[in-house]
Design goal:
mainly beta; single chain; twelve-stranded antiparallel beta barrel
């Protein structure tokens, strides 16, 4: 219980601090970012999947960057005293090696519902669309794509666990400037899992969004979670409100 309270307090504190970033960003032209709120009233197969998500990002001075996501879901419990809502958050701090480099040093901190299950990772991210020999190609495709190799992981599990994280954002100006496709693929290696679990499981999301008016978007997400042994796939429909500065 104490660990859960500490986790929730930390996530809340980080979120409150993040809300202050837009004011600071307006004072310094070198800063920019976004904050978006997503709600998913429809889930096709998994009722205890994420029903709300908050994403946030900020470009900071000295080549630092902040990005976070926080998912809230309905939790299946048999105990009336148990939490009815679950959460999972990733807090990322990245540092670009140089102004011209497509490489970032990264720190990722994961917190979630429960005890003894937090994870912290150190890694290197390669922004392919910012690479000198690939930049023109990615610009023609209107695609941003990055690979983050989380080579060191700190958690309560034995063994050497590491992860490849893929992230992407694609726009379709030839169809509509209001349309985008964004998502991630997390591929984890070296975990000691139950015999009925797949080796090196994948968690992935692809969000298709359409700008309805001003900051309001209609979104649909296709989700894959191989840690679930039933209903690995899920489809979510919802709305997003995005603030950009």
């Amino acid at each position: 219980m104490y660990t859960r309270i500490v986790d929730c307090s930390l996530v809340t504190g980080l979120f409150i601090a993040l809300l202050q970033l837009p004011l600071s960003a307006q004072a310094q032209n070198s800063r920019s970012g976004f904050l978006d709120f997503n709600v998913y009233p429809y889930l096709s197969d998994v009722d205890d999947d994420s029903v709300a998500t908050i994403n946030a990002a900020a470009q900071l001075p000295n080549r630092f960057e902040y990005f976070s996501l926080t998912n809230f879901g309905n939790q299946k419990t048999a105990d009336e005293l148990s939490d009815t809502t679950s959460y999972y958050t990733e807090q990322n701090v990245r540092w670009r090696i140089s102004e011209q480099s497509p490489l970032d040093l990264t720190l990722q901190m994961n917190f979630r519902t429960g005890v003894d299950n937090d994870r912290h990772r150190l890694g290197v991210r390669w922004r392919l669309n910012d690479s000198a020999y690939l930049k023109t190609l990615f610009e023609r495709m209107n695609l941003k794509y990055a690979i983050n190799a989380h080579v060191i992981q700190f958690d309560d599990q034995p063994g050497n666990v590491w992860q490849l994280e893929h992230s992407f954002m694609m726009k379709f100006p030839w169809l509509s400037p209001r349309l985008y496709l964004a998502g991630f693929i997390d591929h984890t290696f070296g975990e000691k899992l139950a015999s009925n679990m797949p080796n090196d499981p994948v968690v992935a999301e692809a969000q298709l969004g359409f700008n309805i008016i001003e900051q309001l978007y209609f979104v649909t997400e296709y989700r894959i979670n191989q840690y679930r042994r039933s209903d690995v796939n899920n489809l979510a429909l919802g709305m997003q409100y995005k603030i950009v500065w």
